[in-house]
Design goal:
Strand content: 15-25%
Number of domains: 2
Distance between the termini: 64 Å
Strand order of the largest sheet: 9-8-5-4-10-1-11-12-2-13
Number of helices: 14
Oligomer: single chain
Largest sheet: 10 strands, mixed
CATH architecture of the largest domain: 3-Layer(aba) Sandwich
Shape: globular
């Protein structure tokens, strides 16, 4: 009898464990493009650029019509995706500024601690990858304090560049070029035997510099490393986090011959731009096919977005929205947003404001993974109720900070201001999504209310940056000043000594 009872108890434990494993076995894939505008995809109305795979995901999954990048440039938004925090709180104020600090708790760290395999593939842009040789924008012996590879933030495996690369033959640039191409914008794909020079940005993995299999489409190169990681996890029945950050369509844009051919009737610049976006779409199609063949697509969250609005003035599209990259008007921060999670979330369109800082709290909530007892303050919130069709309301508007600009975006009203010293603008985003009518003079009380809330939030970011959450070890290591929103890129930074004096009085 005791033996039989023990059998049933053991069976119950095994069954319970299996249920728990099932809850925790959802895979997570975070896909991000670089400078892809809201209007650069077919499902948002683009009539030129072909994105059939993304269009299909928008039909099968969740399409976010008010999805925001946490900043108007790349590095800050990327920090928000991995931490659930506004980048101004973490010290990643602008591209190529600061690092993802060691004290920041990343989603990779939390998932790894809960049995996930974790991998990062593509662009990194949150620190340097070598102290031995000059690499990309900041890497090399001159900046050892900025050395900060992904495996310091919970990643088991990585294959990344510090920053941008050409979107075709990512390690090369032409030794000479002919107009209308330019080394700033892009060029026609190099032909076999055509002379070239090294671009200056390398791929790095856990073992060091990568030198093989780096030809052709940069998006395919990235996916070539992500797919084996996913297959290995599936084979061992281990849940995984795969962060896939494509380099396209960031400058320099170069379309492969087969992609340029699709757009042969378009001007040169559009051939290159549209071509590299369709190449991304092909890799999204490939990703889904791989997941389906492994039998794990239904149990996988696939999130897709861009780090900010489109670069330039004549190619990338923000739709009808005002502004582009580097602007906190809608066109600079309202970006494509998709989620495919076939087992859990039905097809729907969500018009509620959502931001990249919401990734981490939402994913942990969905996986029923508690945060460690000691964790940093989130700016993002879990939108799981929204995905489940339940009542949802943000406790506060979404704050945006950037040298020279601020924005504070709620369900209906959005405050915009050029620094603290300029006149505030107010927009009714629900009824005026293209920000054509400033209603600040009509609603002065609303302006005052939102700006007061913004100032309190902004001060909390400064407090976090200067050490009130987790001390000053990385603050001192990176030797980075607080950058006021009153400053513009390139202006003299805040005096570090005065910041240090103030900090010492408060600790």
């Amino acid at each position: 009898m005791k033996t039989l009872s023990l059998f049933f108890i053991t069976a119950l434990v095994v069954i319970s464990g299996s249920v728990l494993l099932a809850e925790r076995s959802t895979n997570v894939i975070l896909v991000m493009c670089d400078d892809l505008g809201w209007g650069d995809v077919g499902y948002n109305g683009n009539k030129v650029i072909k994105t059939p795979a993304l269009d299909q995901i928008s039909k099968e999954g969740v399409r976010f019509d008010r999805f925001y990048s946490a900043s108007a440039v790349c590095s800050p938004t990327r920090a928000s995706c991995l931490t659930g925090r506004n980048p101004y709180r973490t010290g990643v104020f602008h591209a190529n500024q600061g690092i993802l600090r060691p004290e920041e708790l990343s989603i990779a760290e939390v998932l790894k601690d809960n049995g996930y395999n974790t991998g990062h593939f593509g662009k990194w842009h949150l620190g340097t990858l070598t102290t031995k040789e000059k690499d990309a924008n900041r890497g090399g012996p001159k900046n050892p304090h900025l050395y900060n590879p992904p495996n310091r933030h919970g990643y088991d495996q990585f294959f990344v560049t510090e920053s941008k690369v050409p979107t075709w033959d990512p390690m090369k640039k032409p030794a000479s070029f002919v107009k209308p191409a330019s080394l700033g914008y892009g060029w026609n794909a190099l032909k076999k035997g055509e002379p070239f020079e090294g671009y200056g940005t390398a791929f790095w993995d856990n073992k060091g510099k990568v030198t093989k299999n780096l030809e052709g489409c940069s998006s395919r190169v990235v996916m070539d490393h992500a797919v084996p990681f996913i297959k290995k996890a599936a084979r061992t029945k281990t849940p995984f986090l795969a962060v896939i950050w494509f380099h396209a369509p960031h400058l320099p844009v170069v379309a492969g011959p087969e992609y340029a051919e699709i757009y042969k009737d378009q001007p040169f610049r559009m051939q290159q731009y549209a071509g590299c976006i369709t190449a991304i779409d092909d890799q999204m199609k490939r990703l889904r096919k791989e997941l389906q063949s492994l039998g794990i697509e239904d149990d996988t969250m696939i999130w897709f977005t861009s780090d900010n609005g489109p670069e330039g003035k004549d190619i990338g599209s923000a739709g009808e929205f005002r502004g582009r990259k580097r602007s906190f008007y809608e066109g600079g921060i309202r970006v494509p947003g998709l989620l495919l999670w076939k087992n859990k979330v039905q097809s729907k369109v969500i018009t509620t404001p959502v931001v990249t800082s919401d990734y981490m709290p939402t994913i942990l909530d969905a996986l029923d993974i508690p945060l460690p007892k000691k964790h940093n303050l989130f700016d993002g919130v879990s939108i799981l109720p929204l995905l489940e069709g339940k009542a949802f309301e943000r406790e506060a508007p979404i704050g945006f900070a950037y040298p020279g600009q601020i924005a504070y975006t709620g369900e209906r009203y959005k405050l915009y201001r050029k620094g603290h010293g300029e006149k505030s603008e107010l927009y009714d985003i629900v009824n005026d999504p293209f920000e054509e009518h400033d209603v600040a003079d009509e609603y002065p009380d609303k302006v005052e209310e939102l700006f007061a809330q913004y100032q309190a939030w902004y001060q909390s970011c400064k407090d976090s940056f200067e050490g009130k959450e987790y001390g000053t070890a990385s603050y001192d290591r990176v030797k980075q000043n607080w950058i006021s929103i009153n400053e513009k890129k390139g202006r003299k930074k805040t005096d570090r000594k005065s910041s240090d004096k103030k900090r010492s009085k408060t600790q």
